[in-house]
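pasting for ref
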Amino acid sequence: MNSIASPSAQLTSDPQATRPEDDARLSAAQAALESRIGRSPHDVAALIELSTVMFQRGQLRASSQPLLLAATRLPRNVPLILSLVERLIATGEIVAARACLDLLAQAPEPPAELLAAQAHLRFVLGDIAMARELMARAIQAGANSPGELHMYAMLLQFSGRIDEAHAVLERCLAQWPTFGDAAMVLANLRKQLPESNRLAWLREQLRQMPATGTSPERDFVRAEFEYACFKTLDDLGRHEEAWSALSRCNALMHALNPYRANVEEEVVDALANMPVTSTPPCAPPPGPVPIFVVGMPRSGTTLLDRILTSHSQVASAGEIIDFWRQLHWVADVTPARSEGLLEVIRRSDRINYRELGERYLKQTQWRAQGKAWYVDKLPANIQMVAFIRRALPHAPILHMVRDPMDTCFSNYKAMFGNISPYSYDLAALAHYFGQYTRLARHWNAAMPGAVLDVPYAGLVQQTEATVRGILDFCGLPVEEACFRPERNTSPVATPSAAQVRETIHARSLGQWRTYARQLEPLRLSLEARLGEPVG
């Protein structure tokens, strides 16, 4: 499985920093900074720089201490505080980061750029309502860059305010017609109609773009416009043209983001060979209880989140990477894509799982918003199942299971950006799904009953019976609201924000069959990898 990615200000370690000459340089820098701080204990810039150097030396746990100290000595320096917040988030110190942001929120008459910066960081933390309010104020105060308008439109979309998001994106493209992010989100906002679409305009923009291969940045923008064409053509029922546009988009993205099949296999091998120790039953710690929703992206995890959070006792934390962050912190392994997770696995027998659970809860329970339960919906946490069971044995884990072809096609047509290399090539997609299935089967065999498999088909076709089983597994009383998630008005930060506000339906079952001929190589490859009939 590929390592967890996020839109957050996530730090990654530099493999080159492990070379002896680099470590000697960093060691000298650390000593100099420590001496400087000894002379000036309130030098917040030096504390942030010290944390950065320690992080680069692989001292993740220790690197958070200068940041926590800096958070108690905040200067009247907004850029410095924003930098501190970014670092606190990246090292998993979410509570301290929120406290710094709360202080910034008290600034009288803040300029547009400060409001926009705060909005971005609130979004990173998953606080959609606050981020939307801050960005609205920033726009009103004069913020008008393409990135700011795009973020505001997304926040409106996540809040279900589709018409307002549409107007913001139209305004953005009127000023920056080659801004691919806005073109792609606009196409995704609603179904495109024969009498209302931008297909001719999209194709004209593509015609004027430089040829492919001129630069990665330009190729990425071209891929976004090809994706917008695909979405429009697909909505219009022009499927041959739509597939051609999607193929061009994904060929560009695959070239920009090569899939590392050997690394995916290595990660699953390591997880499958990791000793699984059952944690004896114990009383749950005080405070709200997390419910983990895992699986493949585009398998129905957002729908399940909306069903659960329609319950009066359950809040949504969104797609957060907090468990992954805290696991790396407790293991003292700096994030480094899959290589970092492999090192965590090697150290798994030395991890203090009680500390991991306590730290995760400390940094996330605020997300429950006063309710007794909160949903941590990150599909990639399928990698974390054994760690979650040991650190938080009282936390339910729900695994969304959807038809392989529907899941894979939904991934292939999703355009995730640069974070999901497996999704842009049919052979890579089949390989990745095979590794995901292998891992899910291993967890079920190694820890029977620890995870509840939730069939997507059951969720949309036998909703009441399936939801009752889910609530029973979680220890929640049945509430009628869970059968009508379309009435859930809370924000949802996902590309399917509009779809999940609809009444539960089964229209997505078998959706891949529209492109059955083009997807036949994928179907055959999945059958070979899964060892069972597919489709």
